Amino acid sequence: MAKLKLGRLWRDLSDGCLQYWGGMGFTWDNPVSRAYRDSRIISIAGGADEVMLTIISKYMGILPKRAK
Ligand SMILES: Cc1cc2nc3c(=O)[nH]c(=O)nc-3n(C[C@H](O)[C@H](O)[C@H](O)COP(=O)(O)OP(=O)(O)OC[C@H]3O[C@@H](n4cnc5c(N)ncnc54)[C@H](O)[C@@H]3O)c2cc1C
């Protein structure tokens, strides 16, 4: 749950920073640009967000069953 939340929060935060910085935030040598790119990895590596959602819903017993 923490990994899922962190991934989404970091993406949202870095997106907000980039929007605030405008064109300057988009340039390679700006740390905001780096943070924006790096934020994506939390939602991919070590199990994508969709995998985290599957695990959480399994624990909660609400994972939809496959149609037979
Ligand atoms: C920089 C970096 C460092 C890494 N370091 C390590 C490491 O140290 N150790 C290690 O073991 N691995 C490491 N990895 C691998 C990482 O764990 C995998 O990238 C990650 O598990 C996702 O697998 P994938 O890249 O094959 O994407 P895929 O499995 O092909 O997933 C692509 C997309 O498909 C969707 N998807 C995938 N599976 C499901 C599903 N079950 N249900 C619904 N949607 C799904 C998601 O949207 C996902 O983003 C690293 C990867 C990167 C990029």
Task: Please describe what this structure looks like.
The radius of gyration is 16 Å and the shape is elongated. It contains 4 helices and no strands. The chain has helices at residues 2-21, 23-26, 31-42, 49-60. It has a single domain, classed as Butyryl-CoA Dehydrogenase, subunit A, domain 3, CATH 1.20.140. Bound molecules: flavin-adenine dinucleotide (FAD).
List keywords for this structure.
binds flavin-adenine dinucleotide, 68 residues, mainly alpha, Butyryl-CoA Dehydrogenase, subunit A, domain 3
How would you classify the helix and strand content by structural class? Answer: mainly alpha
The stretches of 5 or more residues where confidence is low (pLDDT under 50) are none
Helix coverage percent: over 70%
Largest sheet, strands/sense/barrel = none
What small molecules does this complex bind? flavin-adenine dinucleotide
Q: Which oligomeric form is depicted?
A: single chain
User: What is the beta-strand fraction?
Assistant: under 5%
The average pLDDT score comes to: 96
What's the CATH H-level superfamily name? Butyryl-CoA Dehydrogenase, subunit A, domain 3
Architecture in CATH?
A: Up-down Bundle
Kindly state the number of beta strands.
0
Structural Rg: 16 Å
What does the overall shape look like? Answer: elongated
